[in-house]
Amino acid sequence: MPRVDLSLLALFSLAATVTFTTVLAVPTWQNFASRDSISSLVPGAGYLEALGLQYGTPYYLSVDSPRGTPGNATIEPTPNPPLFFVDHGQLYQYTNESYILHVNVINTTLSETDPMPYRLVLGNKHEGVKNTHWRWRGTVLHFDHGEKTNLGLYYKCWDGLGKPAVYMYLDP
Fold first, then answer.
1. The pTM of the whole model exceeds 0.85
2. Is residue 136 part of a domain?
3. Is residue 13 part of a domain?
4. Deepest in the core among 37, 43, 138, 159, taking most CB within 10 A?
5. How far are the Cα atoms of 16, 17, 33, 34, 35 from residue 23, in angstroms, in the given order?
6. Does residue 85 lie in a domain region?
7. What's the domain range around 159?
8. What pLDDT, in 10s, does the model give residues 77-116?
9. With left for phi above 0 and alpha for psi between -120 and 50, is residue 161 left, alpha or beta?
10. How many domains are there within the chain?
11. How far is residue 107 CA from its own chain's centroid?
12. Inside any domain, residue 4
């Protein structure tokens, strides 16, 4: 009859108990089912955190209107940031399982109220600058238009009316 080492059996039982306890200690958050189901519906969706702002406070790409409605893109320290994803070179904001907003780039070079040439706006359909491509380069989100790119740089500015928005330049 084979001899069983009880110390290995006890160690295995302890490891199984610790693993089971760890699984039970996973925190949940509001709307867990909705956020869990997005992984199968929209792979790669996540928050877009802005770097370079006030240290210690996370800022995220957001929108200046109620969630699910079109408006200017903004960068805010929100506790519940919206989810974004890139699909076939286009950037979208995930609102819920049946509603998704397009992130559009609007040419504002002729505007007298916008401080930079391109503004990010969320809308119900794709509009604004055409023949564009959003892509990830490492952890940085780049925007390309032909041979020009924003090099992953975005600017939070206030327009001439005092409303915050996200702007960018395109460099060759």
1. no
2. yes
3. no
4. 159
5. 11, 10, 17, 20, 18
6. yes
7. 32-168
8. 988 999 999 999 999 999 888 889 999 999 999 888 888 9
9. alpha
10. 1
11. 22
12. no
